[in-house]
Specification:
Blueprint (H helix, E strand, L loop, with lengths): L12 E3 L6 E3 L3 E4 L4 H6 L11 E4 L4 E3 L5 E4 L8 E3 L1 E7 L8 H4 L3 E8 L2 E2 H9 L5 H4 L5 E3 L3 E2 H4 L6 E6 L2 E7 L7 H11 L7 E3 L7 E2 L5 E6 L5 E5 L1
Parallel strand pairs: 3-15, 5-11, 6-18
Antiparallel strand pairs: 1-2, 3-4, 7-10, 7-16, 8-9, 8-15, 9-12, 13-14, 13-17, 17-18
């Protein structure tokens, strides 16, 4: 029996550098407080406690192509809108209980991303012991650049990661400063979820996250990957 769908829902697709095909997004996982200095500025303990994760809806992605300055709508309800630059990991395969030694074999490629955050709403939800969705999972909350396949970029374990607002660098760190490596994040996530091709992992942000407003131009950078630039409108 053929079943008709009620609505046409467009898939979320991210361009892949050097290929005509696109990467179809299945889920978006984000790790919290994965750089020690950022953990401190958020009031946390930077020691290697078990990592924690949250999710964003896949249609919260805003694709930003290389060289473009994309208009990024200021979301409603917030008076404290923050940038968080992150290395994004795109999985080409998955599984359960993946060993750290095998984890990188499931990575298809990498991209630059921004975990945009309505910080005032996130903080209010955290204080009320409620979920963060309203602060993290809104429309366009996940700007992301094109994916660079592993065959082209390898597995970045060190190199600059930064965010600049109107040409002034705010966040500036090294990928080597991660508390939990990409392989460890994949292994840990696979204990709680069956990971699959199409999953993205936002691997954490350095310190000096801060507010942006209308008219600000925000550029996110990770060594070896195309920059991502948005204008808050």
């Amino acid at each position: 029996m053929t079943v008709k769908t009620l609505f046409d829902v467009a898939p979320t697709l991210i361009p892949v550098i050097g290929e005509d095909s696109a990467f179809p997004v299945r889920r978006i996982y984000c790790i919290g407080r994965n750089y020690a200095a950022h953990a401190r500025e958020m009031g946390g303990d930077p020691s290697r406690e078990p990592p924690f994760f949250f999710q964003k809806p896949r249609d919260s992605i805003q694709v930003v192509r290389p060289g473009a300055v994309v208009d990024h709508p200021m979301p409603p309800l917030t008076k404290n809108y923050h940038h968080e630059v992150e290395l994004v990991v795109a999985l080409g395969s998955g599984g359960r209980d993946i060993a750290p030694a095998d984890a990188l074999g499931h990575v298809f490629g990498y991209a630059v991303g921004l975990d945009m955050t309505r910080r005032d709403l996130q903080n209010a939800m955290r204080e009320a012991k409620r979920p963060w969705d309203v602060g993290k999972g809104f429309d366009n909350a996940a700007p992301v650049g094109p994916i660079q396949p592993v065959a082209q970029v390898g597995h970045p374990a060190r190199g600059a990661i930064s965010a600049a607002v109107n040409g002034t660098v705010r966040q500036n760190a090294d990928l080597a400063d991660m508390i939990w490596s990409v392989a460890e994040q994949i292994a840990n996530l696979s204990q709680a979820f069956e990971l699959k091709a199409g999953d993205l992992i936002f691997s954490g942000t350095p310190d000096n996250v801060g507010a942006v407003g209308r008219g600000d131009v925000l550029t996110a950078h990770v060594d070896g990957l195309p920059d991502l630039t948005i204008r808050i409108v």
